[in-house]
Amino acid sequence: MSLVKLENVSKIYHTNAVEFPALKDISFSIENGEFLSIAGPSGSGKTTILNIIGCLDSPSSGRVLLDNSDISKKSDNELADIRRYNLGFIFQTFNLIPILSAFENVEFPLILKGDLSTADRRQAAENILIEVGLKDFLNRKPSEMSGGQQQRVAIARALVKRPKLILADEPTANLDSKTGQEVLELMKSLNEKTGATFVFSTHDKMVMDYAQRIIGLRDGQIERDETRG
Fold first, then answer.
1. Which domains does the chain have, with CATH numbers?
2. pTM, rounded to two decimals
């Protein structure tokens, strides 16, 4: 059974009475444990797909299945619960809370989830920060950290809930090439170690080179779907 399945998904945006078709009858599946890039130029539809899979947007037509459950017609509250319990997000701008330490940023999703004791929650946050190489940075605020360190905090925050699916929107865009490679190596290692599925939206060739599978988009349609050995 596929972790994610899109069936004939289209998305139309309306701006000043003008229709803009961002996606046109897209169909594909994502299997558990994949390390996949959705790639294409600006305006190709890659971020729209990521937002739909991530329950941040809904298709205009078609179906989206997550763990065999149709999320296409769920309410905003139901979608918020899916994001809270089942998904992890990594953003190109990191989206860390500036007044919180690295530890507090990572602990925050577990507070929202609300199913762990205080001791277990704190242990989980500390463990994942150590796992991403930030043992000595737990009490630093984002402004006291480099871009690569902040992205590692963002990765830890995404993984701390142990979700099956991690969605990363241009995760290397604000990093130099060396730091970007280090971050990709880290995510690839975590993918292999935890079995979590990683899906990237990107136009960065380096991200594509790390991907096991590339879905290439152009003008809202799939141009290629390539799996590498």
1. 32-60+74-227 (3.40.50.300)
2. 0.92
